[in-house]
Amino acid sequence: MPFISDQDRATIARLFDENLVEPVSLVYFTTPPSLLYVPGLETCETCEDVQKLLEEIAGISDKLTLEVHDLKSEREEAERFGVNRVPALILRRDTSTGRVRYFGAPTGHEFPNLIRDIAAVSRGETGLSDATREAIAAIPDPIHLQVFVTPT
Amino acid sequence: MAHQMAVEFENVTGDVIEANEFPELSRRYGVSGVPKVIINDKVEFVGAVPEEHFVAAIQRAAGVEPAAPTGEEG
Asked: Chain A, 108-147: which have a CB under 8 Å from a chain B CB?
């Protein structure tokens, strides 16, 4: 049973058709499900479902590619993207390391945001005001924004 | 808005974090209401705010003086 209904899929397909410009990689870090219960070992409850959801999204447009990495065995890649927890999703255009990241399942309220974010990354621009652009452009240092959310 | 800024600016990294899935991280940042925004581990606020407030908070975190509102200075 797919996560995205046929109706939602059609809506998203139309939005992607109209808005996607450059190809976008969905770079996903996960941990494979463990067959053994190991006390004290952190398990990722949402990792499998998030991967299925991302497979469905990536299947909607030819401009989208899903790249799956194992956090534990691919340390180099994880370091490159600054990822140390899963599930982690990075939206990336071109070969940049990507600065739009999601930690945890992008579901509930975050799902429509994820779809809009994919379109924004593909276009390389958003609806920010000119005043905002001017103010942020004047800051030379790295800016790290962390936004804590809940799905409902 | 964090992600919009990350899309447009090379020096901005925008992380959206599902608080329930990372309780330790949420505790470390004292998350009790959402959305909670943390900027460079220095400035924080809770709730949806207008774009200009978000920008002012970033400027505070970066140690940059906000520009004077248009019209007040020559």
From this structure: 110, 113, 117, 120-121, 124-129, 131-147
